[in-house]
Design goal:
The chain has about 325 residues and is of the alpha/beta class. The protein has a domain at about 10-100 and about 175-285: 3-Layer(aba) Sandwich (Rossmann fold), CATH 3.40.50. Helices cover about 40% and strands about 10% of the residues. The protein is built from 14 helices and seven strands. A seven-stranded mixed sheet has the order 2-1-3-4-5-6-7, with helices on both faces. Helix 3 links the parallel strand 3 and strand 4 (about 90-95). The chain starts with 8 loop residues before the first strand and ends with a helix.
Length: about 325
């Protein structure tokens, strides 16, 4: 991490039972342009609510203002920071996450039961066993049983069950952040892995619509753990976000582009598309935010019957007579 406090401060907030390792690729890329800090850290211990996490983050920051990039559970913390001290946040990046509280009724009970089942497994057999059960749903299918998968398991296993339980209970009691999203007025990035099964793309599209001028970026071939799965693509998106001057909305003046790289960022404007944006290559050359779309199928216009007969040549009856 950068040790130069004269640089603008960037606070990275990991998700559930994650730590600075999830941000390793972005720290390496951005360390020369930002003073980077990762929250939470060990001195805070298990915090039992998202509000308490937000209070601890605010008290830990010496800088009067800072940028916040957060992943999953970390977004819940960042939004509570905004609720408490909106003027201290220069810009905001929300990765693979959501904003709604535990849903009522059967859906909420199902989520609670699933999370409690994982907690019981961690208590009985340890964090490694829990991580092996939980992690496949967090990754793109192509990364199951790979070194990256093992790195995720090892990261989760470094945490105590008591910390996991505290974060889990805080997540289940998460507040509704709809009112905060509507008031965000700083440059905002919303980023999601295309194949995020836990926090799907549709949720991020809705979230971006709640935030004025938010810029939505979709990372291809990527599940929920986007900073680890596609570190270069995420670092590229964060770099563009850091380049947005204060006072601009996320979709205005944001350099967007399409790319043919294996793991491209596909920026998606939340504002109405311009004529240039209807053609990806042309829009990219003009610096417009665009999204890649599948090529349309080519189809032939059906000709009138008389023209079809003329194009086909002599009819069968004529050929028989000849």
């Amino acid at each position: 991490m950068s040790a130069d406090p004269s640089l603008p401060t960037l606070v990275l907030v990991p998700g559930l039972v994650c730590d600075e390792e999830i941000w390793a690729g972005q720290i390496h890329t951005l360390r020369h342009r930002s003073h980077i800090e990762v929250f939470p850290n060990a001195r805070h211990g298990p915090l039992v609510s998202i509000g308490a996490m937000a209070d601890a983050l605010l008290s830990s920051q010496r800088a009067p203002r800072f940028s916040l990039a957060d992943h999953s559970l970390g977004e819940r913390v960042a939004v509570e920071v905004l609720r408490r001290a909106p003027r201290r946040v220069e810009r905001l990046a929300l990765l693979d996450t959501g904003w709604q509280p535990l849903p009522p009724g059967e859906a909420g009970e199902r989520e609670r039961a699933q999370r409690m089942e994982l907690l019981q497994l961690a208590r009985r057999e340890g964090m490694v066993a829990m991580a092996r059960r939980w992690s496949p749903g967090m990754l793109h299918p192509s990364r199951y049983r790979t070194p990256l998968h093992e790195a995720v398991i090892a990261m989760v296993a470094r945490h105590e069950v008591t910390l996991y339980e505290a974060q889990l209970r805080a997540l289940l009691a998460r507040p509704d952040a709809s009112d905060v999203l509507e008031r965000i007025d700083c440059p905002t990035l919303v980023l999601c892995g295309r194949e995020d099964a836990w926090s799907p793309l549709a949720r991020h599209e809705q979230m971006a619509q709640h935030i004025r001028g938010a810029r939505l970026v979709v990372v291809e071939r990527c599940g929920h753990m986007s900073p680890m799965e596609q570190p270069e693509a995420v670092a590229e998106a964060l770099g563009a976000w850091l380049d947005m001057p204060e006072g601009t909305e996320g979709a205005q003046g944001a350099p967007g582009r399409t790319t043919s790289q294996p793991a491209p960022c596909t920026p998606t404007p939340t504002a109405p598309r311009s004529a240039a944006a209807s053609h990806p290559a042309r829009a990219a050359s003009r610096g417009a935010a665009v999204r890649s779309v599948p090529a349309r199928r080519r189809c032939r216009r059906r000709l009138p019957a008389r023209r079809r007969r003329a194009a086909a040549g002599p009819c069968r009856a004529s050929r028989r007579r000849s």
